[in-house]
Design brief:
mainly alpha; globular; Sodium/glucose cotransporter; 23 helices; 70% helix
C-alpha cells in the first residue's frame, strides 16, 4: 500500500479514536470541564500529563536540535526533564491540597486580590499562546508533507479536531484523549528508532546504539559523526560551543519553566487526593523518560543518515557530493514542502552541504570549487524524514506522521483548556460575574475554547521561530512570571499581593521584551552572544527574569503591609501533609 493511503488510514483512525473518546467522556459540569471531576487515577494522570507536556517540540524538534547542535542540545534534555523534579517536590501536592480549578484562582486567593488573579491570567495567556504557536506549526508540517496539503489546510484540519474534543469534552475528555495520544506518540517514536538503530549499529536498543559501533565499520557512531561534521566545517558533534553561562541559564529557564507551565500544573488538580498528585508526577516522569532517553540516539542517527546520503566521498574528490538529479525520493517530497531547499551556487549540479560560516573552512571549500552552502534543512523535519532516509517500510513512516500529530494536538488541547478556564472561570466568574450559573459558565468556557482555537491557528501560520525555539520562549515566560508567585505563595508567609503583582509584571515584561527585541527588532547578526546581556541568549533569559521577579516581589513585600491573618493560616494549612 502506498504511503499516502497508509497515512490517511493511520491519521484518520487516530482522529476517530480521539473524537470517540471525547464524546464518551464529555464534560457535563464545570467540575468535569475544568478538572475532570478530580477523579483521575494517578497512573492515568501521569500518562496524560506526559502527553500534555511532550509536545511537537519533544516529538519533532528536539531530535532535530540534537541532530544539528549535538552536545549543545543537551540543555533541552536536562531542562525539560529536570523540571519534573521541581514539580513533584515543590508544587504538585500543595496545589492539589489547595483544591481549586486553576493557577490564577490559586494566585488570586493566596494573594487576596482580584488584580493579582487578572495579572496571573495575563501571564498565563502570554505563555500559552506562545507555546501553542509551536504546536500548531508542528501540525501544519506533518499535514503538509504526509497528506500533501498546504500548511494552512493542515492547520485548519488540526484546529477542527482539537476544537471538537476540547470544546465538547473539556478537561475530562482531554485527559482520556491524551492517554490515547501518548500511546500513539510513544509507539511512533520508538518503533522507527529501533529499526534504524538495528540498521546502523546492529543494536535494537536506541539508548545503547547511541554508544555502539557502526555495523561493518568498527567505528563508534559518535566518533564517526565527529569526523564527518568536522570535515565539513561544522563543530565536532560531541563538542559544546555554548558558553557555560548560557548553558546554565537555558537549563534553569527550562527546568523552572516546566514547573511553572499552567497546562501542566492544572493536571495535578484532577487527581482524587494530595498524595496522588506527587505519585502522578513520578509516573509522568517515567513515561516521559521513554522518549527522552531515545531522543539522543534518534538525533545522532538522523544526522548520520543525512550525511551518508548527501556526502558520497571525501571532499577532495570531484564526485564527493550527490548529484542533484540523482537525489532520492524523500529529498524531492520534502523539497515540495519548502522545508528542504537546494541552491546550486557553483552550478556543478551537486549538493554541497557544509558550514560556510566557518572562516577556517572556507579556503578548503573554495579550493574544492564550492561557493557556499547549498542545502538548507529545517530542524523540525528530521524525525519525520529520518524513516524515509533510512528506507523503512511505509507503515512505519505513516505511524510517525500519526505520532507527530498526536504530540502536537495533545499539548494544544491542554493549552486551549487553560486559556478557556482562565477566561471563563478566572475573568468572567472570578471578576465580573461571581453569581453566574454553572451552565452559563460552562457555555462561556466552550466559547472561549473556540475563540482560542482560531487564535492558535493564526499563530501556527505565523509563528515566531521553529517549534523547539518557540516552546523554549514559552518556558522562559513561565519561569519569569508564574513560577515565583506560585512558589512564594506556598512557602512564604510574608509575600503579599503588592509584591506578587509587581514581580509578575516585571518578570513578564522584561523577558518578553528581551525575546522580542533580539528575535524581531534587530538584524540577525546582532542576535549573537557578543550583543546579549551577560552572554545570555533569548532562550535562557527567563532565568534572569525569574530572579528579577523574586527580587522585586520580596523587596515590595517588605515595603508594604503584611498579608491578612487568614492568608497566613491558608499558607500554613497548604503545607500541612
Amino acid at each position: 500500500m502506498d504511503l499516502r493511503t497508509l497515512t490517511y488510514i493511520f491519521v484518520g483512525t487516530s482522529f476517530f479514536v480521539y473524537i470517540l473518546i471525547a464524546f464518551l467522556s464529555r464534560a457535563r459540569s464545570t467540575g468535569d470541564f475544568y478538572v475532570a471531576g478530580k477523579a483521575v487515577n494517578p497512573v492515568v494522570n501521569g500518562m496524560a500529563t506526559a502527553a500534555d507536556w511532550m509536545s511537537a517540540a519533544s516529538f519533532l524538534s528536539m531530535a532535530g536540535l540534537i541532530a544539528f547542535m549535538g552536545y549543545d542540545a543537551s540543555v533541552y534534555l536536562m531542562g525539560w526533564t529536570g523540571g519534573y523534579v521541581l514539580l513533584a517536590l515543590l508544587l504538585a501536592p500543595y496545589l492539589r491540597k489547595f483544591g481549586k480549578f486553576t493557577i490564577p484562582e490559586f494566585i488570586g486567593e493566596r494573594y487576596y486580590s482580584k488584580t493579582a488573579r487578572v495579572v496571573a491570567v495575563l501571564c498565563l495567556i502570554f505563555v500559552s499562546f506562545t507555546y501553542i504557536a509551536g504546536q500548531m506549526r508542528g501540525v501544519g508540517i506533518v499535514f503538509s508533507r504526509f497528506l500533501e496539503v498546504e500548511l494552512e489546510t493542515g492547520l485548519f484540519i488540526g484546529m477542527g479536531v482539537v476544537f471538537f474534543y476540547a470544546v465538547l469534552g473539556g478537561m475530562k475528555g482531554i485527559t482520556y484523549t491524551q492517554v490515547a495520544q501518548y500511546c500513539v506518540l510513544i509507539f511512533a517514536y520508538t518503533v522507527p528508532a529501533i529499526f534504524i538503530s538495528l540498521q546502523v549499529t546492529n543494536n535494537p536498543v536506541p539508548q545503547l546504539a547511541f554508544g555502539s559501533q557502526i555495523a561493518g565499520d568498527g567505528v563508534f557512531l559518535l566518533d564517526k559523526l565527529d569526523s564527518i561534521v568536522t570535515e565539513l566545517g561544522f563543530a565536532a558533534y560531541t563538542q559544546g560551543t555554548k558558553s557555560t553561562v548560557d548553558v546554565f541559564f537555558i537549563t534553569a529557564a527550562l527546568m523552572v519553566g516546566t514547573a511553572g507551565l499552567p497546562h501542566v500544573l492544572v493536571r495535578f488538580f484532577t487527581v482524587p487526593k494530595v498524595r496522588d498528585a506527587r505519585s502522578s508526577a513520578g509516573w509522568a516522569l517515567l513515561f516521559i523518560a521513554l522518549l527522552y532517553t531515545t531522543a539522543p540516539s534518534v538525533g545522532a542517527l538522523a544526522r548520520y543518515n543525512l550525511h551518508e546520503t548527501i556526502q558520497t566521498g571525501p571532499i577532495s574528490s570531484p564526485d564527493a557530493n550527490l548529484l542533484y538529479e540523482e537525489r532520492p525520493q524523500w529529498f524531492k517530497t520534502w523539497e515540495g514542502t519548502g522545508l528542504l531547499k537546494f541552491d546550486d551556487k557553483n552550478g556543478d549540479g551537486r549538493i554541497q552541504f557544509y558550514n560556510d560560516a566557518n572562516p577556517g573552512f572556507r579556503p578548503l571549500a573554495e579550493k574544492a570549487g564550492w561557493r557556499g552552502n547549498e542545502l538548507e534543512v529545517d530542524n523540525d523535519i528530521m524525525v519525520l524524514a529520518n524513516p524515509e532516509i533510512a528506507k523503512l517500510p511505509n507503515w512505519v513512516i505513516a505511524l510517525v506522521a500519526a505520532g507527530g500529530i498526536a504530540a502536537a494536538l495533545s499539548t494544544a488541547a491542554g493549552l486551549l483548556m487553560v486559556i478557556s478556564s482562565a477566561i471563563s472561570h478566572d475573568i468572567l466568574k472570578g471578576v465580573f460575574r461571581p453569581q453566574i450559573s454553572d451552565a452559563r459558565e460552562l457555555r462561556a468556557g466552550r466559547i472561549s475554547a473556540a475563540v482560542a482555537v482560531c487564535i492558535a491557528g493564526y499563530l501556527g501560520i505565523n509563528p515566531p521561530g521553529f517549534v523547539a525555539q518557540v516552546v523554549a520562549f514559552a518556558f522562559g515566560l513561565a519561569a519569569a512570571s508564574l513560577f515565583p508567585a506560585i512558589l512564594m505563595g506556598i512557602f512564604s508567609k510574608r509575600a503579599n499581593k503588592e509584591g506578587a503583582i509587581a514581580g509578575m509584571l516585571v518578570g513578564l515584561v522584561f523577558t518578553f521584551g528581551y525575546i522580542v527585541y533580539f528575535k524581531s527588532m534587530v538584524p540577525p547578526e546582532f542576535n549573537t552572544p557578543q550583543y546579549w546581556w551577560f552572554g545570555i541568549s533569548p532562550e535562557g533569559i527567563g532565568t534572569l527574569g525569574m530572579l528579577l521577579n523574586f527580587l522585586t516581589a520580596m523587596l515590595v513585600s517588605r515595603l508594604t503591609p503584611h498579608p491578612p491573618q487568614e492568608v497566613i493560616d491558608l499558607v500554613e494549612n497548604i503545607r500541612v501533609p
